[in-house]
Records
---
Amino acid sequence: MNKTTPKAQARVIKLLSLRDHSEKELRQKLSKNFLKSEIDEAIEFAKRHRLIPTTVAESQKLAAQFARYYTQRRNGPIKINQALSQKGLPPVTISDEQALTSACELIQKKLSRSSKVLTPAQLIRYLLSRGFSLSCAQKATRLELSNRAKT
């Protein structure tokens, strides 16, 4: 252990005190200020003390936590799994029914806040930008516009 390793370990602890991080995220953040050997020692320290996931089950648990966070922020399955991949975490499975429900809620919110009339194409593009599949965006748009036409 060299002199700067305790600094790298302290930085890992500081980062983890703010929120959970994957190993990949920690490596990226530490790479700005520390050598690879120092980063490796700091990561091993975190693993030894069970501060970061060491098993597949723990990684999946962390991925599920992040997925809940991204779902609350109204992101679709594609965007959620893309964010998890960037963090070095395994993808999560989101049912088509859950995705459709979220997409419908987003459309309702978008329509209620918009003062102008939105076309189906605009609503579909909006959902695609939020990470929903094309088929889900089309179904949700059809459902919500038909519900609006009935009322």
---
Amino acid sequence: MSLIKLQRIVFVFLVSVISVTLLAMEPPQGKGKKPDKPKNEQKEDREDLKDVQEVVGLISALISTDDARRFAGESNLTGRKPLPPGTRKNLAKGKPIPPGIAKEKVPSNYLKKLPSRDGFEGRMAGTDLLLVRSADKVISEVLKDVLK
């Protein structure tokens, strides 16, 4: 057997051993796929979220998306561009408004048509209408595509 053939065989063997070793290793702490939760734990998590929302004082907008959309049309606020999908998914009930999102106050002619809530304010972000707690800017409700 020639020296070149022996080197190739040793090289293939070493690459194989290294590959198998890397595949068998555990992912680093906090990385990799998380195990699925059993259905009963998922249900408990949703119930816990409802409890948290009640405790932190999140409320409903008390208006349907269709009514809000109709009022937006009457107030000439439609035709806005949506936020990019990655940014838009960060607008969620119970989360603070993410920094860097262009959020505008709702104009007074539109605000007069919406139900008012003490301690809350309306904000526009892309095509979405947000009900935000004034004290800490936590989103209480997201009405999607109202300003589309």
---
Amino acid sequence: MAKTTKITKVEQGIVTIPNPNQSDSVRVFANVQLVPEFMRFAQWCGTPRRLRQPFTQKELAEEIGVSQDTLTDWKNHPDFWPLVKETVVSWMRAKIPDVIGGLYERAANKGSAKEVEFFLRLAGMDMDKGKRNKNK
């Protein structure tokens, strides 16, 4: 008897199917046959240029076994740029502690008043709040 696959989620053209071999789900994109390669290209595009490996799109095409024309076509796929955005947001979130640490170092050591004010605002200590309320 053939085993059926249950689709667990359909959202913005992305079908999520449970993967019996992993705890994650497999993403399926309409009109994309090479899903891992498609996702790898989106992740590569969402990585800052100086951190990309391989460095060029041509080298990536060779590495994942597709033509450069295929990569160009994928850039026009409706799910491509939202997938790139997911990569960018994930990368940025991972860097937040380092950015805040750098902001702290700069504000504490040689920061301008604006940098100190921004750091305090991030910490929930808006020093100008009282001044603004008095002027109303």
---
Amino acid sequence: MAEALRDALLATPAFGQWVDAVEIAGPGFLNIRLKPAAKQQVVREVLAAPADFGHQPSNGKRVLVEFVSANPTGPLHVGHGRRGALGDAICNLYATRGWDVWREFYYNDAGVQIETLARSTQMRAGASSRATPSGPRPPTTATTSRTSRTTSSPARP
């Protein structure tokens, strides 16, 4: 089957013009090697095109990509930033393919865990007024819980 597919591809005029070799690379795999002229032609097209090279016109469809925030009661690490960058890259990819992209980032600042954090912070802040000046002092500002979200797109209808 792979040989028949390879032969069919090579018989196509465009394939013959731009492809140097098609090799069977095991069950289910074909390696397609482009001619140097094909690579150079793509570079010429990109350089000659306007800034929106590769963008497709609107397809009339919407997609919502949600960015979930890091847990504010847990430790932060580089993975949290990586997920934000990855989500934004996915949104940009959809936008170049003609989608109307809605980006939403939900603050993880609601629920029992946040209420417990707010209550314990407020209690500790209240206890700080009774602490001795020589001892460690907890933060004096209390964290309050809110249930909001931000979006970079207009509100959904």
